[in-house]
Design goal:
CATH architecture: Roll
Order of helices and strands: EEHEEEEE
Strand content: 25-35%
Distance between the termini: 32 Å
Number of helices: 1
Helix content: under 10%
Shape: globular
Largest sheet: 5 strands, mixed
CATH superfamily: Beta-grasp domain
CATH topology: Ubiquitin-like (UB roll)
Radius of gyration: 11 Å
Number of domains: 1
Length: 84
């Protein structure tokens, strides 16, 4: 059984080897971002459920319950919402 990514209420198949941003780009979902290594924070999103691991340590400020799509991956089902 494959894992799923739910973004703003829409369900997508989750490629566990790709970042969350790359997963959304593969599905032609428009996501604001300016970097791909956790520095700017433009892709900051709300983590509703699930867990992430970071490919690089995020330098952007994150509040509790927020994740950066550009440098995070998930190995299990995950639900996230944009903050904008």
């Amino acid at each position: 059984m494959s894992s799923k990514l739910i973004y703003n209420g829409q369900q997508y198949t989750l490629d566990e080897e790709a970042t969350l941003l790359e997963n959304l780009e593969k599905q032609a979902v428009s996501v604001e971002f300016h970097c791909r290594d956790g520095h700017c924070g433009a892709c900051r999103s709300q983590l509703v459920s699930g867990d992430v691991s970071y490919t690089t340590f995020p330098m952007a400020y994150l509040k509790d319950g927020e994740v950066l799509l550009c440098c995070s991956k998930s190995q299990k089902d995950i639900t996230i919402n944009s903050l904008s």
